[in-house]
Amino acid sequence: MAPILRIVLLSILTHTAYKGSKVLMSLSALELGANEFFVGMLFSTYALFPLLLSVYAGKISDRVGFRAPMLFGTVGLFIGLALPFLFFRLEALYIAAALIGFCYIFYTVAIQHLIGAMAEGTDRTRNYSWFSLGIGMTALLGPTSAGFLIDAVGHRATFVVLAAMPVLPVLLLSLWAGFLPGTSHAPVSKADKAGHRVGDLVRNRPLRRALITAGIIETGLELYNLLLPIYGHRIGLSASEIGLILGAFGLALLVVRALMPHLIKRSSEERVLAASLLLATGVCVVFPFVTSFVALLAISFVLGMGLGCGSPLSMMLAYNRAPAGRSGEAMGLRQMVNKGTEILVPFVFGSLSTAFGMVPVFWLDAVLLAVAAGMMRKDAAAIRKPPE
User: Which sign, positive or negative, has the C-alpha torsion 263, 265, 269, 271?
Assistant: First the structure.
């Protein structure tokens, strides 16, 4: 099996469990009597430690390679999913979310760094496309399977099923030394890293614009993942119906990411990203006026088409714009921006939706997406017409 396919299959197992856990945690919290504010805080708990540790996780992957941080992340994911089965209480959900966030960020940064280090040029773009397809599949499988499992066997037993998914990755990473492909990446020593500061990366204007765009994209994704289960629960949808709506979003991710390499070939990363963000902007304007199950399925699919290119393209831009020898650190910085967004979005947007309803929340997100689209259009124009 080709190395990239091994990595994609590994990520499908781990990230299906991770994505499913977010839906399961939210619906379990509601089942235990939590209100929208506390569900938002539960979402924020996932991102608390990644916000603090993302850049450090990137430095670790620069320094020691990929296998150790990936193993650490998968073991933490397993323990975090098993905990609510043993102690099905609201406080256990918060502890589990914090533990998953703490450990899984090392896996996330390391595997994104590994994908970039495996190849150069168009082969790197192809690898990121394959990887994003796998992650897109988990956005379909995770929420859908969690929803059906909750209706079939209950919230508590669903944690056991999700906890079983990281077991094979743990075994492969711990027992098969040659499972991860070789790369041209050479670990960077502490001496070589001396004098490198995060501020240097932030002052890199092209990289900074990619990071800002990544944060705005993450805002759109987190807003959808946070509010859709709450909204569906409010209007009386079942867990299976909520899972299917989230699954429609995930299906759109698969479709648009399958098309992404062809779109980039005809244009560029920046132009494709700008166009997709404009589509997402339009959807966010009308989303809060949609109320029926069928209509929610359709509009979720269209929103997925708009946001689906965002994560892989911002990942590619961050890797490509990083200084030599600091690609892992740049990927960690991207994750730090994303996790900061994941903390702010549930708190700010959850409070706004509680106070004012869904309309101003989605419209504010539409404004942010439009700003990101404008930045990418400006970057695309600069590439097409470089300064003399």
Answer: negative
- Encode pLDDT of 111-166 as tens digits: 988 888 887 777 777 888 888 888 878 877 888 888 889 888 999 999 999 999 99
**End-to-end Cα spacing for the chain:** 47
Distance CA 136, CA 130 (A): 10
Closest CA to 232 of 280, 293, 183, 143: 293
Phi/psi of residue 99, nearest 5 degrees: -65, -45
Q: How far is CA 210 from the centre of its chain?
A: 16
Contacts of 215 (CB under 8 A, 6+ apart): 337, 338, 340, 341
Is residue 186 left, alpha or beta, with left meaning phi > 0 and alpha meaning psi from -120 to 50? beta
User: Angle at which helices 121-153 and 239-266 pack, to 10 degrees?
Assistant: 170
The rounded distance, in Å, linking the Cα atoms of 254 and 305 is 9
Residue whose tokens read 């609201």: 90
Q: pLDDT tens across 60-85, in order?
A: 888 888 889 999 999 999 999 999 99
C-alpha 127/C-alpha 384 separation (Å) is 25
Distance CA 385, CA 370 (A): 22
Read off the tokens for 59: 């430095």
Quickly list H helices, the chain: 3-31, 36-64, 67-86, 90-117, 121-153, 155-164, 167-175, 190-193, 198-202, 205-234, 239-266, 269-286, 293-307, 310-321, 327-356, 358-384
Three-state DSSP class for residue 259: helix
Domains in the chain and their CATH numbers? 3-173+199-382 (1.20.1250.20)
Diameter over CA atoms, the chain: 65
122 DSSP 8-state letter: H
